[in-house]
Amino acid sequence: xxxxxxxxxxxRNPPDNTFDVARTYWDALEYLLENQYDEVDIDHxxxxxxxxxxYTGYDILMWLADLKSQGHYVPPTYYVLTANPVGRVRMQQVxxxxxTFKKEQQDGQ
Length: 109
What we know:
Strand content: 15-25%
CATH class: Alpha Beta
Largest sheet: 4 strands, parallel
Low-confidence stretches: 104-109
Distance between the termini: 31 Å
Mean pLDDT: 93
Oligomer: single chain
CATH topology: Rossmann fold
Number of strands: 6
Strand order of the largest sheet: 2-1-3-6
Shape: globular
CATH superfamily: Response regulator
């Protein structure tokens, strides 16, 4: 079985050619809507601005959390790539709280 991986970063390149690469917030949403990934490697600062607002990796994770709450598929594995310490903490909180499948949910506890 092939593992589908998405690399979301505006500057850095993935470590190998097994990743699809999204360089912007909007490209990432398109990839995520069109594919079922097993892993997402994601940066916080994507250099994406529209109408005076910055769109970040945190926004992508919040969008995925919303999709999951509606019963849609979301990738099960995430790696945060950012050097932004505040962004890293915020992103990891979303992953831990909303996107990671927890054993106690499976056990019904």
